[in-house]
Amino acid sequence: MLVIEGASRRFPGGTVALERVDLRVERGDFLVLLGPSGCGKSTLLRLIAGLDAPDAGRLDWEGGRPGPGEVGFVFQDATLLPWASAEANVALPFRLRGAAGDGRARAALAEVGLAGFEGARPRALSGGMRMRVSIARALAPRPRLLLMDEPFAALDEATRHGLQAQLRALVAEHGVTCVFVTHSLYEAAFLATRVAVMTARPGRIARELALPAEAPADRLGPDYSARLRQVSEAVHAIA
Amino acid sequence: MRQAALSFALSLALWQGLVWGLGVPAYLLPGPVAIVRAFAADWAGMLRALLATLSVAGAALLLATLLGVVLAVAMAASRWAEAALRPWTVILQVTPVVAIAPLIVVWVGDPFAAMTVCATVVAFFPVFSSTAAGLAATPPEWLELFRLQGARRWQEVLWLRLPAALPYFLSGLRISGGLALVGAVVAEFVTGAGGVASGLAFRILEAGYRLQIPRMFAALALLAVAGLAVNAALGAVERRITAKLV
């Protein structure tokens, strides 16, 4: 379980990004962080990952801080090394720990539907394929916590829908706890089992919402509409 | 390419036409025809001199590259190393090689080694500063990715910063290639004046003393062609590698 209590972050120059953020993420949750631009969603994600430290408050992941390999992180950009093949990019976490990881990397690529693209360089892949390689790299070491910072924001609608469905299935299959940052109410309604809505800067958690764990059957049915209405009402209630 | 060749040929024709038309004597400004004749009269000697200059420039470029990359990596790996080395690299950059070349000749002794050291001083800075800039310009997301995986400092430098800096390094290498040639010629001027007869600079000096101005221009033309060739070769390497990387 991830527990955040009273976490604040003030940047040099005086900008207060986060103010007394309290949040609990249960094991297996798919938590979507929603909020306006600049409200500190990405800052909160970086605090959880250990890439930044809070000025006040505490973060606790299962009794301490997450260690290397416990956290998978997917950035807004796929952040693939352009000189390395798709397989080498996915195997990177293993190589950094002194293992080859080729078999795991190939399996992870197959899981995201990229079997046969092991040797492809990132520039030869589409934006959606690059993001799938990035997701494969994050999931290959079997992390317990997956953090995603607006990973689909730069993709077209059709690709985004495909990746959302694939991500939901992968997260369920791996049993990984996921914290996902987005601006999109539609994305939140489709992916989340819980939604946390943040206020404008300085960011705080203004509202939390639980959604049914089962994925909506499709995006035109009543399940999805009901989820979207719930998310929309939660967001507009604080606007 | 064809346009450049045509424009170059037209410039040469205009130059020759003006020299003939205005009756400019060869000891003031020889035309291209006189320069080609001077080259043809001693082409073997000229090419030997070019080879000597290119040997110095090549050795200097190799040394400058090794030194530049090693220092840039040391500075990227350690803040202490950066603080200690940065002022010396700037001092090396602003020191006029002509001023210290006679001292280097005395200190080093061997003429080839002395000329190589002088040319290295001239060629060092671009390859060093470009590599250092490249190592410092690694995208922060890539660095964070490595940090999240618990990468060690050497892994970050070797597997991330160095490959990411390669386009910068190649760009600096191209500039240093030209400067190594300039440095070799400057070094030869100093040692040539001291009696070491070898490279193109010595041929230029010798021709100048004897008022053989077309021969002097032939040596300069050969130097220009060598510079263009070095630049083109390093440019081709840069394009080939960068295309594979990015």
Could you give the order of the helices and strands of chain B? HHHHHHHHHH
Oligomeric form of this entry?
heterodimer
CATH architecture of the domain at 50-191 and 224-245 in chain B: Orthogonal Bundle
Largest interface: A-B, 20 and 19 residues
The CATH class of the domain at 50-191 and 224-245 in chain B turns out to be Mainly Alpha
Return the domain count of chain A.
Answer: 2
Shape of chain B: elongated
Our Rg estimate of chain B from Cα atoms comes to 22 Å
Roughly what fraction of the amino acids of chain A lie in strands?
A: 15-25%
Distance separating the two termini of chain A: 29 Å
Residues in helices of chain B, as a percent range: over 70%
The stretches of 5 or more residues of chain B where confidence is low (pLDDT under 50) are none
Q: Based on CA inertia axes, which overall geometry of chain A fits? A: globular
Mean model confidence by pLDDT of chain B = 89
The number of distinct helices of chain B, counting runs of at least 4 residues, comes to: 10
Name of the level-1 CATH class of the largest domain in chain A = Alpha Beta
CATH superfamily of the domain at 50-191 and 224-245 in chain B: MetI-like
The major β-sheet of chain B equals: none
Please give the order of strands in the largest beta sheet of chain A: 5-6-7-3-8-9
